Amino acid sequence: MPAMHPMISFSELFKIGIGPSSSHTGGPMTAAADFAQHIATAGLLGAVARVQVTLYGSLAWTGRGHGTDKAVILGLSGLHPAEADPDLADALVDGVRAERRLRLAGMQLIPFDPEQNIVFDGITPTEAHPNTLAFEARNAAGAVLVAARMCSVGGGFVLPESEVGTVVAQAADLPYPFESARALLALGSQHGKTIAEIVFANECAICDPAEVARRVAEIDATMMACIDRGLLTKGILPGGLNVKRRAAVLHQRLIARQASNTRLPHEILDWVSLYAIAVNEENAAGGRVVTAPTNGAAGVIPAVLRYYHEHCPLASPEGVRIFLLTATAIGALIKMNASISGAEVGCQGEVGAACSMAASGLAAALGGSNAQIENAAEIAMEHHLGMTCDPIGGLVQIPCIERNAFGAVKAINAASLALNGDGEHHVPLDRVIATMRETGADMQAKYKETSKGGLAVNWIEC
Question: Exposed, middle or buried: residue 363 (CB in 10 Å: 0-12, 13-18, 19+)?
Fold first, then answer.
């Protein structure tokens, strides 16, 4: 029997969903939908009189700001993130709140008062993961019919609590298995393949090649559409901070500047920042985004990809494919060997990971060698080490939106530095990823998506 190897696929790292958070919105929605479906599959829908959901740790501390309660309602109603229509989601949730009833798994109407049936427990400690949810379905006599404890481990990935600590990956008979950057580079040298070619071959071991190509094109199109929506939409972001959406105004100013004689050489950085801000404003508003690899960092890769599309003379569909497949390899390495969860390792695991993925993708699309690509990823990740996750009000707005803009600019800079070198460098990517994991373990909990430290508590409300 052939050996089976762990694999984090393209479709796992790049998921289409809704904002504002992959770990606090996408993951809980998926967990709730899976729980509801389990009840339906077991033939127990008709016996359910009450469903109780308890949110622990970071989900309790910042869940209201991240819309975790809304996500749970949508999930219990039978919706997964990729299926939820952002324009209809609020109406569904408002209806549940007003009627205090919910159609479990989209089929069985049960009493459900979000104020009573969703509990934010920020006191009880969690050992497996800070993003833990507990589900209970009871009958009319109060007996437990089904119970489950799930963890949202970052990037929309969900695991049973008992499985936390294992690699979240498919098991497949891969032609080119790798679990480290060192092994990835060795495979490239041994077989004469680029990183993108290695990833594509592995993807084809679990999926038809035409389907892989379709998914890559769909993710690219969804990212670009998200930017376009963000460039046109004005208003105030939800949540109570009264943050104005800036992308539309910035876009108009940049277009006007193009017609003048006052354009500055660094204007290209303004465009890159604009693309990232557009995406993250859409995310903060609960719009449709691509988890890349998380929602909190959803703007970095689309911004750099848009930079490639519109500002690189030799850009091509093949370059886009190379970009995204290469980024998949780097994201998989970070996910397997550290974390992409802000609640586990801070924002170094979110914007830092996205920056590293984007830098590698751009370097590859521009013709970089495997060594230069690994160097680009290493530079990008190295200069996010120690970055905290401290969202004001538990909202993915300040500093998250601008942080994505800076992450995108850093990614382009990292790719450029690597492409101007020969790939040789002192600190390998594997060591930087390990350092990120160790730094996250040493980081105080208040700096890891709790809104109990850092900028979240050091601002003056005007």
Answer: buried
Torsion sign (Cα): 438, 439, 442, 447:
negative
CA distance 203 to 399: 35
What's the rounded Cα separation, in Å, for the pair 348 and 196?
24
Q: Which two tokens stand for residue 26?
A: 């996408």
Q: Give residue-wise pLDDT tens across range 201-243.
A: 999 999 999 999 999 999 999 999 999 999 999 999 999 999 9
Question: What are all long-range contacts of 139-145, with beta carbons under 8 Å and residues at least 24 apart?
Answer: 139/47, 139/48, 139/49, 140/49, 145/39, 145/44, 145/47, 145/48
Amino acid at 82: A
Per DSSP, what are the bridge partners of residue 103? 109
**Coil, strand, or helix at residue 462?**
coil
Q: Which of 127, 146, 140, 14 is nearest to 76 (CA)?
A: 146
C-alpha closest to that of 229 among 270, 274, 283, 282: 282
pLDDT tens per residue across span 53-78: 999 999 998 888 888 999 999 999 99
What pTM was estimated for this model as a whole?
Answer: 0.91
Q: Of 124, 116, 327, whose CA–CA distance to 216 is shortest?
A: 327
Opening angle at CA 74, ends 72 and 76, nearest 5: 65
Question: 371: which 2 tokens?
Answer: 């060594």
Task: Identify the CATH assignment for 21-163 out of 3.40.50.12780, 3.40.190.170, 3.30.1330.90, 3.40.50.2300.
Answer: 3.30.1330.90
Q: What is the dihedral of CA 109, 113, 118, 122, to 10 degrees?
A: 180
Q: How far apart are CA 181 and CA 381, in angstroms?
A: 13
Which 3 state secondary structure label does DSSP give 251? helix
Beta-bridge partners for 170: 7
Q: Which of 248, 284, 287 is nearest to 397 (CA)?
A: 284
The domain segmentation of the chain, as residue ranges, is 21-163, 174-457
Q: How far apart are CA 265 and CA 43, in angstroms?
A: 64
What angle do helix axes 209-232 and 195-204 make, rounded to 10 degrees?
Answer: 110
Distance in angstroms (rounded) separating the CA atoms of residues 90 and 253: 32
